[in-house]
Design brief:
mainly beta, four-stranded antiparallel sheet, globular, disordered N terminus
Length: about 190
């Protein structure tokens, strides 16, 4: 049986040993309005509409064929956002995270990252995930103190209702300093 080939692009963004989050001079925004208009260096008057509230560090979105969405919370849970109407702000965040994924390790940048639907999702309900799991521990005498190392892992599972089943590890990278990953399918 001939299967279509796919390539997974894992974007590994290296950070220097002991690097801290940079203060880029932009204060976090409290989203208390239904929409916002932003100016950027490339474009003016970009309108952003709040679709749903209550997510913790949303990182990736996978739109399901029936209008709902899977949203990964960086280092946290996989959430389901239900589409309930056409007007902005009418989506509803499911109160319970989708079950079946590994628990998040207890360090910065650990846990769930990207989520992507299989190109044949409508038929097979397969979903791909990247996950930062604990890598080799840093040496105890490292100077300056070194962040916990991670291993980017590619997982695949089947979305069955409100759970991921048949979860399988497809690839695990070597240990390194990572801060994120992304998925892409070749030829799609």
């Amino acid at each position: 049986m001939k299967r279509s080939m796919f390539a997974v692009a894992l974007g590994l963004f290296a950070a220097g040993a002991g690097a801290q989050q940079l203060d880029i001079g932009i204060a976090p925004v409290t989203l208390d309005q239904p929409s916002y208009v932003f100016d950027t260096g490339e474009q003016h008057k970009i309108r952003a509409v709040v679709v749903v509230r209550g997510l913790k560090h949303p990182f990736a979105v996978a739109l399901l064929p029936w209008g709902d969405a899977l949203v990964s919370e960086r280092g946290g849970a996989l959430r389901l956002v239900h589409h309930v109407g056409g007007a902005p702000g009418t989506a509803v965040l499911d109160p319970e995270p989708v079950s079946g994924l590994p628990p998040a390790p207890g360090y910065r940048n650990g846990g769930l990252q990207d989520v992507a639907l299989d190109p044949q999702f409508a038929q097979n309900h397969l979903v791909y995930f990247t996950f930062n799991q604990a890598g080799d521990p840093p040496p105890a005498d490292a100077k300056p103190p070194v962040r916990q190392q991670s291993r980017i892992t590619l997982l695949r599972g089947r979305l069955d209702g409100h759970a991921v089943t048949h979860l399988r590890t497809l690839f695990t990278a070597g240990s390194g300093s990572t801060s994120g990953s992304r998925l892409a399918f070749d030829g799609q």
